[in-house]
Amino acid sequence: MIDILIIFGAIGLTAQAFIGLSFLLSCIWEKEPRASLFALLQFIGMMIVLAAYLILAWIGFFETTIGTGLLFGGYLFAGLAVFLLIKRSRPNPKALSGTKDMIVGEVKRFDERETLFSRTGSLRPGSKQYKAFYAEHPEYKVFDDARRAQGGPMGHAGAIDRPHGDVNVAMMMASSNLPTYLSDPDKVKPEPHFTLKQELAKKKVTISPEEASERVKGYAKMLGAQLVGIAELNQLWMYSHRGRVFKHNWEDWGKKISVTHRYAIVFAEEMSLDMIGPAPHTPTSMESMKNYAKGAYIAVQVAAFIANLGYSATANHFRYYEGLMVPLAVDAGLGEMSRMGYLLTKDFGPRIRLSAVTTDIPLIPDRPVDIGAEDFCRLCKKCAVCCPSQSIPMGDQVEVNGTLRWKLNEQTCYEYWGKIGTDCNICMRICPWSHARTFPHRLIMAMITRNALARRLFSFMDDIFYGKKPKTKDPPQWARFKSPTHL
Ligand code: SF4
Ligand code: SF4
User: Fold this and answer.
1) What is the 3-state secondary structure (H, E, C) of 2-66?
2) What pLDDT is attached to residue 61?
3) Distance CA 309, CA 205 (A)
4) Beta-carbon neighbour count of residue 466 at 10 Å?
5) How many Cα neighbours within 13 Å face the side chain of 413?
6) What's the rounded Cα separation, in Å, for the pair 75 and 5?
């Protein structure tokens, strides 16, 4: 009996050392010097414990009364620790209800004209829309005029890396062309392909909701979406009026948005760690733009696919939104809303960009998920600590427009964007949920998404291994910018 316990003890400690080694290799691969050092120390500690155990077993210590007591004590401790860290904690009913339980008061649909990007990116000084808007909203005028004088919503593009980052800025802006091209009405609200039009005029393709859901998800993934979910559309998350204009289509500005579709299919595209690592420098915006372009490509093609079955569909992407992507994604089961306001997903944390298609084709909606993000964010606060403009709240959730959530100060966040000329993304880079999904990080995510104690332990460990304010990383050689200004 004791022999078997000794052998299983050795197997257990070897497995633990193997996980320690895999974490060390992961940190080296992630190019995290601080985490690599701590992982090395941790691994050396594990090897010392394993070696001591083997020596004690070899000299027969575990056959003595004290040794047997220690062996049983070790089993008890290890068993209890594993049990406490992997048992499923009480579910969060708020997360499982999606955005429904976030609503605590009267919610007014948001007017796209009031977004900073519409105000400072679309409105032309002196135009009739400009005069009409500021007559109704004089509170924005001083801020917006100052922002316009700085060069628009993002200020002088790539300012933080100029003059050396000009090449990156050229790449960053190149990716914004595709979404603009794909914002034409025939792309975002497609008609069936001309070869199918006649037969579809007679009859739509008959397809069950189960099959339609499976096909739509499969097609979107084939096109490059990493995550796809379906939500029953909540009209509250649709804008009330159009506000963004890119192609002089001023007749669109101020148009009422009325969406009769019943479903939203939401897509998430992963942002690469290599490109997010240098945030807030230009590579991070190159990656954002690339994923906005990818999102537009996916949304427009999925909308065209649905139109070719005879149903109505509207693509929502970087250059054409009819609604707010994050609440739709929460309802579609892709993740939970975080302290920083981004969606937190189990697979990529906040390292994603979202796009969507609203449609009337019958589908099977997915269920919202409880991945422990709200609980983790309550403890963590790392994004709030690291945000250079203090735009992320340190405190509790508050009621905003009838919803209970953490409220980012968009004004100060965008002000910082304006200074540096990129979309910053420091909060995305430093979030503990953003780590590469290597084997040890997958293991950690599996624990923190189900267990409250693991969330406390790993939120604390993240600060130890990666630091309270993780440093900016170098970009890939091809995306270099000289004279980097570190945080
Ligand atoms: S950094 Fe922490 S608090 Fe902020 S979103 Fe990520 S997990 Fe939540
Ligand atoms: S993008 Fe930058 S400035 Fe904005 S909230 Fe995140 S860290 Fe703060």
Assistant:
1) HHHHHHHHHHHHHHHHHHHHHHHHHHHHCCCHHHHHHHHHHHHHHHHHHHHHHHHHHCCHHHCHH
2) 93
3) 5
4) 20
5) 20
6) 9
Ligand 2 nearest atom to the CA of residue 426, by list position: 7
Residues 336-369 as b/e (b if ≥16 CB within 10 A, e otherwise) read bbbbbbbbbbbbbbbbbbbbbbbbbbebebbebb
Query: What SS3 state is found at 353?
Result: strand
pTM for this structure?
0.93
Q: Ligand 2: distance of its center to the CA of 427 in Å?
A: 6
Q: pLDDT tens for residues 357-403?
A: 999 999 999 999 999 999 999 999 999 999 999 999 999 999 999 99
CA nearest ligand 2 atom 4, residue: 413
What is the predicted pLDDT for the residue at 445? 97
pLDDT at residue number 194: 84
Q: What separation in Å is there between the alpha carbon of 392 and the centre of ligand 2?
A: 7
Taking only the tens place, the pLDDT of each residue in 36-57 is: 999 999 999 999 999 999 999 9
Rounded to whole angstroms, the Cα distance separating 256 from 244 reads: 13
Token pair for 74: 């070790």
Distances (CA, A) of 486 to 27, 179, 202, 469, 473: 21, 31, 62, 12, 9
The answer, yes or no, to whether any atom of ligand 2 lies below 6 A from the CB of 391, is yes
- Residue 463 tokens read as 């600060």
Torsion angles phi and psi, residue 311, rounded to 5: -110, 165
What residue segments make up the domains of the chain, in order of their start? 2-86, 93-479
- Site to probe by mutation for ligand 1, drawn from 351, 381, 431 as the one with most ligand atoms within 8 Å of Cβ, is 431
Which two tokens mark 436?
């590469």
Q: What gap in Å lies between CA 321 and CA 113, rounded to an integer?
A: 12
Pocket of ligand 1 contains residue 383 by CB under 6 Å = yes
* Predicted confidence (pLDDT) per residue in 198-254, tens digit: 888 778 889 999 999 999 999 999 999 999 999 999 999 999 999 998 877 788 899
Distance of alpha carbon 421 from the chain centroid: 21
What distance in Å separates the CA atoms of residue 349 and residue 42, rounded to the nearest whole number? 25
Collapsed DSSP state (helix, strand, coil) of residue 103: strand
